[in-house]
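Now for our specimen.

. . .
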Amino acid sequence: MDNKEKEDKLKPEVEKKAEKRGAVFSPKLIGAIADEVSKSIISRFPSMMHRSKKKAKPKKTKKIEYALLLDTSAIIDGRIFDIISTGLLNGNIVILPSILMELKHLADSQDAVKRERGRKGLEMLEKLRKGKQMKIVVPAEDDEKSFEKLEVDEKLIRLAKLYKGKVITCDYNLEKKANIENVRAVNINGLANYLKIIAVPGESLHIAISHPGKEPSQGVGYMDDGTMIVLENGATMIGKSVDVVVSRVIQTATGRILFAKRI
């Protein structure tokens, strides 16, 4: 008898023995054993079960108190640093990484004027950082990444909302857009206009006439604070100083213009 015939002959006997062994454990007993095993595992690893159910908390953006977000125009203009030096402002100066990148591009520009402004802006920021009169904060790149597809002006507005801060700029359009979106924006040019000396009709002034006006007969001079004075029939006085009396004051979007007559 060969091996195959022996295996075939023994197979029924093995199956019968297996059936007898299986009959000893009823389904009910197997279920009870499984329950006990699972309870034992859970009791040994409670922390593992807890961690598996716990959801990861979203990362919170660090709040910056009294944030003043400077745009590129305000930095290269430079007057904001004079205002800071007076001690008038309180809070944290916030400079976005994208603003620093714009300043770097300006500092590397082939245009001499742009290059000088970019370098001057970076130097003033460094001077402010070393002086420690106000803290300079550069937000984490993750804070800006959520707005990375937006333009720089839009990033400033969104982050000003996030930090509940203000935007400092010399850009008229950025100022208006920020105000529309309920973000407080301070335009340095507008602030300068508010600080100009207010002359009233009938007030006498002594000014130098520097160039002609829009009308051929007009001459134009300036007050010490930069306010323009248009002198009627003053074209013949260009290059000379003259006593004038203010006749009227016009307020424009860019500031005040005084009209005057010779005394």
Q: What stands out?
A: The chain has eleven helices and ten strands. Residues 67-194 form a domain with the Rossmann fold fold (CATH 3.40.50.1010). Residues 3-23 form the longest helix (21 residues).
